[in-house]
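Annex B, item 7. Sequence and structure tokens for protein A, then protein B.
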Amino acid sequence: MKILFVSPFDFTNPGGVNEHILHLDAQFRRLGHETRILTPRALGEDESDDGHFIKLGTAVPIPANGSTARITLSPFVSGKVKELLQREQFDIIHLHEPLAPALPLLVLLHSQTVNVGTFHAARSYHLAYLYAKPFLGYFFNKLHGRIAVSPAALDFVSRYFPAHYELIPNGIDVTRFHPNVPPIATYDRPTILFVGRYNESRKGLKYLIEAMALVRREFPTCQLVVVGPGDPERYRRLIERVNVAEHVHFVGPVSADERPRYYTACDVFCAPATGRESFGIVLLEAMACGRPVVASDIRGYRFVVRHGVEGLLVERKNPEALALALVHLLADPALRHRLGQAGRARAEQFAWPVIAQQTLEYYERVRARVAPRLVRAAQRWTAGLPAFLRGPFDGEQS
């Protein structure tokens, strides 16, 4: 098949959606499919097409879901999108966050082939979905297949756009994340690991720092290693107040090759997020490396980690509950080993070859269902668009 992946997000900044696309892309190419990736260009980049990546529209930073999304808002690449689709004649267009501005919407506007959308996000509400639903409904109805990466993501999007959604989760590279990866260091004291963009309050690092003060009562030499982008000064006062300055170490961002080595160096991995997590890739990374997990009991995490099987789930925003679970695991090596082994087995169910095969099988089911009526449906949909949508988007502005 000839497949186009569409991301609303700039690929020069790391993120779960773009990693998902890259892994599917690599698996599909390995199986002999022809793939392209359409994405916005970063500030300072030129529009380009290297035969694999196509970059159209300039990405700008927009606050979203407690983070920052770098997306393009310009409709003026519409003509170039239309020309691309007419020239390439893709069999499948797979859009990730398909209702995000502006590239996914422009692709849906002009697509005359099978459109599949994957919904990744989970949050408590979405003002754009709520107030722009009549407008977005046009584009949602052009999706022939709909995927959610977790029950949390499914519940969120179906609240605004009820439909059938196929549940196909995020994946993990079980060859890169593995218990036999050499650790970054051999620590001589109990070590808890946090991985994530810790400046985002939803990641819950402050609750883990508060928990460390309680963990130290039982394990005085215990340390917390924090990996990921952020500003440590944001937590300096808290660290001094709870007296853990000698026990919290900020590493900063690390390379993709180094990240597994931090997991295998720790005794316990902790993810104290407060919410708005649809899945939790870091949980899978830790589990694939054979490490037990302590995580907040939130919907997105519950789908990945089963309490008492691969890890311990605790009440969110509760330092005492975090500390109790961490102490329980640090005090019981046999339990850590059992949970770690179960985590590795669980992670193998999410291996990217498995996820890619599920996705391809879903493509085939969708194609078989919609192919006979695809052209007629596309013509009816375009004819029914309001004039203000048909006119401006068909221009050739750049």
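Protein B:
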Amino acid sequence: MKRLVYAFTVSSLFLLSGCWDKAELEEQAYVVVMGLDQHEEDENAVKVTFQIANPQVGSSARGDEADEPPSDIVTLVASDVAIAKEQVHAIVTRKISFRHLATLIVSEKLARSDQHHQLIASLIIDPEVRRAMSFIVSKEEAKDFIHANKPRLETRPHKYFQFMRERWREIGYVPDSNLNRYFQRLGGELFLAAYATAEKNNAQQPRKGYLAGELPQEGGDPVQIIGSAVFRYGKMIGTLNGRETRTALFLREQSFVRNAMETFTDPLNEKFEISARIIEAYDPDIKLNLKKNPIEIDVTIPVRLQMVSDLSLTDYSTNLKNQTRLKKSIQKQLEKRTMEMIKKTQEEYQSEPFLWYLNARRHFRTLKEYEAFNWSEKYKNAKVSVQYEVEIANFGEQTKPAKLRKPKGGHES
């Protein structure tokens, strides 16, 4: 009997093994970026743009590469993405695959429509679509954005977005948004998606906070990604600039922003600004009092700064009195910026992107009780206070700022 079982097991290995479902690399067309646009004439149709990577460009297999482009871009009109994925085989010889699809671009026009959520919700039915896919909103049509995005330092398009995501996590001007977070925040909370454009609307004067397309630029890559698109109930309702986005990320219970730079008005010479690097942003302490009416929210954020520029050449490094004034001034400026942004979310967007609703849910025994509380409605009228605990770690390597020394009674030769 044992021999019979053994023989059956061994023979089954030969029957079950095989290469019937294998797919050679040269037979696959890997979509790495996909764009979605509203159709101008048919509201039930969508324009789908596929950016298909060329696996030979940028890899070690360069023998037959010649002058091949790094990717091929194809746009079709269909009722949904699944149909477009099928119909594109009338143009592309290889089998389309979403296994390496890591970036989704949605036009602002589509993001502000009722059609948006229907397309996104149906998209994840495809088993090849990953919820970790980056979610970006483009000011112009996604098709135009993808065609315009030609980074000079990155040959492969998927590497460009991968490196950009790493920069977002460091500086905080852009939220690290993906489909999974989008689906988590469909109940009235605000969802922040990366905002991008290849269209320039350069500001004439330096601003305190830029949105994509406003950053003064000469040369370099044509695309700017800065700020965030604000979603509520699956529809885009507005934007936050880069500084507002970073502030929103600081207010979350787990702050991931590191190595960020900020500028502040010099308290001893308001004609100049002083720059500081946030070398450590500790997780904020968030306290809620849900029994009061209106509810009370108290937030304390400890930060450590490193001064990196001092255009007024004021002695802050050795003068303790100046240090105290600088520290208090930075604290007040941070609190003012934060409260202005919070007021904007309360009055204009009527909800919050800080994930404070997660803290509020802990005060209720059941989800039903929390939903009956109606957090978004309570937040609109909430009494919010924010306090920064500022610590200046150092003022740079120089003991004192170097100043010009002119000779008395004459001119320098």
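Comment on protein B: The first strand starts at residue 28 and ends at 38.
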